[in-house]
Amino acid sequence: MLAFLLAASVVGGDAGEIRRLRAQSNAAIAAHRAGEARRLFAEGYTALPGSSGRPLDAEETERRLDQAFADPSFVTYIRTPMRISVAASGKRAAETGTWIGVWRKPDGRMQLTGLYQATWVPGARSWRLLNESFVTLRCTGSRDCPQFD
Question: At 54, which CATH number?
Answer without folding.
Answer: 3.10.450.50
